[in-house]
Amino acid sequence: MSKHKLFLLRHGEGAWIKENRFCSWVDQKLSEAGIVEAQECGRLLKEQGYKFDRVFTSLLSRSIHTAWLVIEAMGEEWVPVTKSWRLNERHYGALIGLNRAEMALNHGEEQVKQWRRSYDITPPPIDESHPYFSEIYNDRRYSTCDVPTEQLPRSESLKEVLDRLLPYWNEVIVPEIKSGHTVLISAHGNSCRALLKHIENISAKDIVGVTLPTGTPVLLELDEDLKPVKPRQLLGDQEKIQAAIKKVEDQGKVNASSK
Ligand SMILES: O=C(OP(=O)(O)O)[C@H](O)COP(=O)(O)O
Predict the structure, then answer these.
(1) Residues of the domain holding 149
(2) Catalytic positions, written as ranges
(3) Quick check: CB of 14 below 6 Å from ligand 1?
(4) Which of 37, 41, 71, 115 is 20 to 30 Å from the Cα of 215, by its Cα?
(5) Quick one: which residues bind substrate (predicted)?
């Protein structure tokens, strides 16, 4: 029987989604469309009668703004919001800022798919010569983390995302859920995929086929041990959701719309 409801949300569209660039730890804001997506998401959740007691976000503005817009649209701005780097998007290393369609042209679509969706392939690391290195590592927010800046990732596979996320999940989020609180996690495509892999016990092979669109809440109904009691539900118009998933998948093809 379902005892707990947990909501995972990939933030609304970010500015670089239009440009088809790997965004990752670069702090791009929501686009105009992303703002609307987050507001519509909040309205949908309200209409369906859901309420949150705790909200968790990454340290990246797009996940924080999405959370704010959602709870504002629900008329629930008072709900506590807690932020951690451990919910940040996967660190895409040297791929940060690159265009996916150009990458597919240069390295092949299959290689780009492996970089994007495989479980244990780590992209090449970012180094000091990378155009976004200092913007990321000199940002004041990363001096507040529970590890020194030098120990923050320089590139991550999905497995490595799960490794850094799990302590936070187990020590901070799980106790909130078990105490009876309904939790929204407003995070990113791959930090949500890592968490889904863990909660739903998805195999390394099958996680390759899991893609999350922006601004679409994923409802997980869990038993007292936080095991799913039914398949995950992506809330909203199912046709639009399927089209949005395909659009994300197609970003890694040579003929993707924005190059
Ligand atoms: O920043 C990113 O994800 P986000 O938009 O969920 O924060 C990544 O660049 C997503 O890229 P991917 O869909 O190729 O894994």
Answers:
(1) 4-250
(2) 11, 89
(3) yes
(4) 115
(5) 62, 89-92, 116-117, 189-190
